[in-house]
Amino acid sequence: MRRLKSVLGVFALTFAMLLSTNVQAQDSDIVELAVATDDLSTLVTAVKAAGLVETLQSDGPFTVFAPTNAAFEALPEGVLEMLLKPENKDKLTAVLTYHVVSGKVMSGDLKDGMMATTVEGSKAEISINYGKVKVDGANVAMADIEASNGVVHVIDAIILPPSIQKALASNESDMEEDSGSDW
User: Fold this and answer.
1) ω before 67 within 30° of 0 (cis)?
2) pLDDT for 49-76, tens place per residue?
3) What structural domains and CATH numbers belong to the chain?
4) Which of 88, 133, 89 has the alpha carbon at shortest distance from 114?
5) Would you place residue 173 in the very low, low, confident or very high pLDDT band (cuts 50, 70, 90)?
6) What pLDDT, on the 0 to 100 scale, is given for residue 167?
7) From residue 69, how far is each of 52, 61, 113 by CA, in Å?
8) Rounded to whole angstroms, how far apart are CA atoms 32 and 34?
9) Quick one: pLDDT band at residue 181, thresholds 50, 70, 90?
10) What is the pTM for the complete model shown?
11) What does the alpha-carbon distance between residue 164 and residue 155 come to, in Å, rounded to a whole number?
12) What is the C-alpha separation between 110 and 49, in angstroms, rounded?
């Protein structure tokens, strides 16, 4: 009986902590939520560099597919550094706004084969296989983190709009040299 009470106590405490975290997240806007999440610090840096903080703090609602720090680290060498340069702000903005959809789209609203129109203007493909959701091939690692102005779904890779994919492919030699001049 004592063991059962201990297990129930731990369960109740864990549930209370999760509930508290969710309430705190709902009280925070998308940017505040990202700032409070250590694994999204590179995303926060990129959002600041692109000048999108005020936009993502506005009423929205927005759905953000938020790449983790590891997702940014997995980019080819030099790409993140080039995107963060002031002269590439338009490219960075295109990449980041490709991760955003207008409106609040919960994971239960997503359908296999769905094409989500991003704020950038292109469409990202949603695929669902055995209950696992992907956005343009990036796995949704954590879904339905509600914020005061929308919802965040954490993803494990950077998704790129077609225009940036083309630029990366055509400037691969420039990328290796880290010149970035033709970007």
Assistant:
1) no
2) 999 999 999 998 999 999 999 999 999 8
3) 29-177 (2.30.180.10)
4) 133
5) very low
6) 76
7) 18, 24, 27
8) 5
9) very low
10) 0.80
11) 19
12) 30
φ, ψ (nearest 5 deg) of residue 98: -70, -20
Q: How far is CA 163 from CA 63, 123, 166, in A?
A: 21, 12, 5
Element (H, E) at 134: strand 132-135
- Is the pLDDT score of 140 beyond 50? yes
Q: Give the chain's end-to-end CA distance (angstroms, integer).
A: 67
Interstrand relation of 115-117 and 100-102 (parallel, antiparallel or unpaired): unpaired
User: 83: closest CA among 73, 95, 71?
Assistant: 95
Give CA–CA dist 180/87, Å, rounded.
9
Please list the alpha-helical segments (H only) found in 28-68.
Answer: 30-35, 41-50, 53-57
Residue type, 23: V
